[in-house]
């Protein structure tokens, strides 16, 4: 909490992901965080931190790089989202993204790593997905594990009332694992099964998460997804 209270500190970027952020959530003073707004950035395991701070302190946080993960694309996205003056309207687009459900929707952005999001369920840091644009990313999980986690979100009511969904740039979308004889869906098919059923605008292979193209996306801001046009546009996110 020391750096949160320092007036000369404008932002806090996590050094790396991995594990452990869930363990510290109960140790944080969310009133102090709320009264000393900082730009807090991270992804992967830090999904717990950035969503808990948004949920409990009401501050916009950022699903973006950790200090050990920069390249030119990541730096340019980070700079554009956080360090430019023209923050009133920023658009991210990906022509190579695949459309699962066409359409447009507006809502605040929530989400991050699927495994970590599920770990927040049933805790004081559980996220509110009603009316939200849900962003989901993962790293090297088998299709049956993704199916299990998406089913858990569904059973917990976290998919029922979302406005839209954006799925990150997962590697090997067409891979299978013969876990059940005669039934081996690909990763892409698992996402399609869950989100086509919802009928909400949804795209997959958007550039964020465990990828060399990890775009910086603010958590908690109002945004619009044009799934047909494969574009996410978000508005002012100033915590001041």
* CA-based shape: globular
**What is the structural class?**
alpha/beta
Number of helices: 8
Order of helices and strands: HEHHEHEHEEEHEHEHEEEE
State the CATH class.
Answer: Alpha Beta
Find the CATH topology: Glucose Oxidase, domain 1
**Overall number of domains:** 1
CATH homologous group name: LD-carboxypeptidase A C-terminal domain-like
Report on this model:
- There is one protein chain.
- With 240 residues, the protein is an alpha/beta fold.
- It has a single domain, classed as 3-Layer(bba) Sandwich (Glucose Oxidase, domain 1), CATH 3.50.30.60.
- 28% of the residues lie in helices and 24% in strands.
- It has eight helices and twelve strands.
- Helix 7 runs parallel beside helix 8.
- It is globular, with a radius of gyration of 17 Å.
- The relative contact order is 0.20.
Task: Write a brief caption for the model.
The protein has 240 residues and is α/β, with parallel strands linked by helices. The chain contains 8 helices and 12 strands.
Secondary-structure blueprint:
Layout: H1 2-5, E1 11-13, H2 21-24, H3 30-35, E2 39-42, H4 47-57, E3 61-63, H5 72-83, E4 89-93, E5 98-101, E6 104-113, H6 114-119, E7 133-137, H7 143-155, E8 164-168, H8 187-198, E9 202-206, E10 217-219, E11 222-226, E12 231-235
Parallel strand pairs: 1-2, 2-3, 6-7, 7-8, 8-9
Antiparallel strand pairs: 3-10, 4-12, 5-9, 6-11, 11-12
Q: Keywords for this structure?
A:
240 residues, Glucose Oxidase, domain 1, four-stranded mixed sheet, 28% helix
